[in-house]
Write a structure and sequence with these properties.
This is Alpha-ribazole-5-phosphate synthase. The structure is a single chain. The chain has about 230 residues and is α+β, with helices and mostly antiparallel strands. The chain has two domains: about 110 residues, PurM-like, N-terminal domain (60s Ribosomal Protein L30, Chain: A, 2-Layer Sandwich); about 100 residues, PurM-like C-terminal domain (Phosphoribosyl-aminoimidazole Synthetase, Chain A, domain 2), CATH 3.90.650. It contains six helices and 13 strands. The strands form four sheets. A five-stranded mixed beta sheet has the order 1-2-7-5-6. A four-stranded antiparallel beta sheet has the order 9-11-8-12, sandwiched between helices. The chain has a two-stranded parallel ribbon with strand order 3-4. β5, α2 and β6 form a beta-alpha-beta unit. α1 packs across α2 and α4 runs antiparallel to α6. It starts with a strand and ends in a 5-residue tail after the last strand.
Amino acid sequence: MRNAVSVGDGLIVTTDNSGGIGEKSHDLVKAPDQVTAYFAARVALLEQWAAQADPIAVLIHNFSGEGSWAQYVTGTEKAFQESNMEPPPITGSTETNMELIQSAVAITMIGKKREVPVTPNLEWYVYGTPLVGNEVLERSDEIASLGFIREAMENGCVRQIWPVGSTGILAEYRKLTGEPDVEIVADINVTASAGPATAVLVGITEDDIEQALRILGDPLRKIVKTDSFRG
């Protein structure tokens, strides 16, 4: 698993947070609270899928004040709706004793693991573009689609996924494969931050690539191992 935690009985816990992004005057990136929550929920949801689990409950930790709660819930629900999933029960807590000058929110998901057979010899591709900060808002058409990923997983042509975070594609691929020194090339920057998982690694068999392309669209950038070393 990536950053998920197994707590027994097939339950999987994932989480993501956001700070300094929102509607407050001192926020570093200005964005509607609904959008902020959507991207935090997106990461936690992708982490669930990477662990072969589906969320059964969501907790929102709201440090931005009561005025942000409804929008945080709406943004969280949007991540599920985009994935053609019914949002699970949502609860949480709001900080009302102290008023912060910057927005902050964390979203935690509890999921139930699915029994999925291990598929050997997967080929790995990058779906989406690594984006961070204002790029996420300005280039939203380049972000990996939750709906398409879910469809490809249910179709069976995408067997495994691995979201890319701030450390970039190379670091995530090394973690995924357990090869800390492996080098790769792909038709994209493999060290750039992908912020809120705007890019996702998808594992596909050779026989399924055409079907995956029909669902996910182009480009899917194939990851190729190399023998070169970085200085």
